[in-house]
Amino acid sequence: MANPAKWNDLVGQQVQIQHHGRTIRTGYVEEVTAAADALWIEAHGIDGRALYEKAQGHTVLPFTEHEGADRGHRG
Q: What is the pLDDT of residues 58-68, one digit of tens each?
């Protein structure tokens, strides 16, 4: 498994949000709090903008092309 990224370095990048080792969402990081303890994932389709917090047990992994089909929505 890849190492979780430093959250403050992820703005604008596509990532996987994981909770207890399971991917629960893939999307683009829109914003990170000043303390880098929470981040917002952009809204896309039926998935609204969402906040994920380290204190809730979430980890974030940068998305890489070899991990599956293109899930991006930027063009």
A: 999 998 754 55
